[in-house]
Write a structure and sequence with these properties.
This protein is mainly α and about 160 residues long. The protein has nine helices and no strands. The longest helix is centred in the last third of the chain and has 20 residues.
Length: about 160
């Protein structure tokens, strides 16, 4: 198998592992569908520009597509690489919250609830309303800013 055919085969393998069709990958990589199909079939060699675009679209390093350094796909290493790919895909799609976000403790939440409850019982409704409004405004801002993980850690 020629080196260019191997690049096309690697592209096809990674594309299928990511659950993409040739059209979807061509669209994501901003390359023509016909060029991608020719490269995958080995009919045409892959240019460095195509390899770079496809690597970005598949979120892999260029050496992963070119096979540098040499990769052996048979045997235990090949089976291990295939199983790791499924795990890698899951990890890529998991949204971890940023470091340093500390969820509020139960004690902190209980103190705030008690304070607001006391305000209401003391007929300090205006003060309680302002506090609740601030909390709701902050919650709305977190949700609209696309930060649901912060919302969950605060409320």
């Amino acid at each position: 198998m020629r080196d260019q055919e191997r690049v096309g085969a690697r592209i096809a393998t990674l594309r299928k592992a990511r659950g993409l069709t040739q059209r979807q990958l061509a669209e994501r990589a901003s390359v023509s569908y016909s060029l991608l199909t020719k490269v995958e079939s080995g009919a045409t060699g892959a240019t460095p520009a195509l390899i770079g675009a496809v690597a970005r679209a598949l979120r892999v390093d260029v050496p992963r597509l070119t096979g540098q350094p040499y990769e052996e796909s048979r045997g235990q290493a090949g089976r291990l690489r295939e199983s790791v790919e499924a795990i890698r895909r899951s990890i890529d799609t998991y949204d971890l919250p940023p470091e340093g976000i500390v969820p509020r403790t139960y004690a902190m939440l209980a103190t705030d609830v008690r304070r607001i409850s006391d305000m209401g019982q003391s007929a300090l409704f205006a003060q309680a309303d302002r506090t609740i409004a601030l909390w709701l405004g902050f919650a709305w801002w977190l949700a609209s800013a696309g930060l649901p993980h912060l919302y969950a850690s605060v409320f």
